[in-house]
Amino acid sequence: MELPSPLPLPLPGALAQAPQPAPQPAPQPAAERSAADAALRATAKKFEAAFLTPMVEEMLRTAGPATFGACHAEEIWRSVLAGAIAGEIAESGSTGIADSLARQMKAYGG
């Protein structure tokens, strides 16, 4: 007893045809692309700043209490300062983290 094939068999003429490429999405207008790219860059810069903040906090910790005053408010102020410094580093683009991240996000359709 012969079992039926779960997949349809190709017709003889169908083998000679080249596979059709997948349809490409319609191109976005330039204004939409630039707005999407700007949003993507802003997100990448926010991520870079968040990534750098703990590193800057550790660097500030090595400065010692005499540099910033030895009180409880110093810890709070130091974390705010670390966030601000990390944000400036991210805005400057000197590390390249945001650029690399934006390229990867764009490659994955971000």
TrEMBL record:
Domain Flagellar protein FlgJ N-terminal, first and last residues per copy: 59-104
Show the ranges annotated as biased composition (Low complexity).
29-38
Q: Which InterPro entries match?
A: Flagellar_prot_FlgJ_N
- Extent of Pro residues compositional bias: 1-11
Q: Where is this region: Disordered?
A: 1-38
Q: Name one Pfam family in it.
A: Rod-binding
Please report the name of this protein according to its UniProt entry: Rod-binding protein
